[in-house]
Amino acid sequence: MITAYRLLDNKLKIDHLTLQDELPSDTVWLDLVEPTDQEREWLHTYCVEEVPDREDLNEIEASSRFYQDKDGTHIHSFFPHRSGKELRTISVSFNLRPHMLITLRDEDVGLFRLVRNYFKRNQIEIDSPMVVLNALFTAKVDYLADLLEEVYETLEETGHMALSEGTSDERDNILKNITLQEDINGKIRLSLLDSQRSLRYLVRNRRIRLSDIHQQEIMDMLRDIDSLLPHTAFLFDKINFLLDAVMGFINLEQNKIIKIFSVAATIFMPPTLIASSYGMNFELMPELHWTYGYPVAIGIMIASGLSTYLFFKRKGWL
Questions:
Q1: Distance between CA atoms of residues 129 and 137, nearest Å
Q2: Nearest in space to 249 (alpha carbons), one of 163, 310, 177, 132
Q3: Distance (Å, rounded) from C-alpha 111 to C-alpha 151?
Q4: What is the per-residue pLDDT for 48?
């Protein structure tokens, strides 16, 4: 899908383009979502260099994610996207030109819809492509901060559940929740570090002429990122503590079960010894012909087992 955001009489006009349409000259932001091969070819007519493909978007080395060519400045940045309870990172390609910003992504991202609504409601006034770029990154940093707050709240609730008594099914759910929060926190940290590198590249790039306002916005975002990164490190420590605590409780429960089996086996050991003694096939065993031999043997077995149980109870092993 190709969407052109045009600035017409200081008002934003949104056009959905087809392959037969030409790119309007007053386009400030050109957004391509899940582009087909034909739509990539259409975009290539307005580019000197090659259009990034899926493999290019997922490259992690700096030279592939931040570079300058004849088409302008290129930045590939990870954007978080909530999918159910899980958090996914989607790589977005930004091509910043003097009068237009081109974004390319293979999946839809909720933050782009949010920023688009801001533009529709005139909550953000567009006068240059840099405004769009700053708005998208500002929304991303704010969203990552909100996600960190959610992880804090979830781990707080999970911590209370982990430190209280519960069933094995509840322990399993706690473990699943902790591992989910660890995955979310890892992706938040990845997005923060990636945003930090992207914004620093914009500041260092001398070919991009940033106004004082745009530069101040970028510096504010960098300060916010610097303040959020220590929280991700703290959350990793807290997650590891909760994992160790839950695993410790599970080991204690398993030890209790093994202890019960061990004590039961020890209690039944004397009666088993007595029963096995009278199960031997010797001819000269006077008790076999004794009238009260069977009840006496049963009584001895019960007494031996009960005495073992009482001994363990007195020692506090039960």
A1: 13
A2: 163
A3: 19
A4: 67
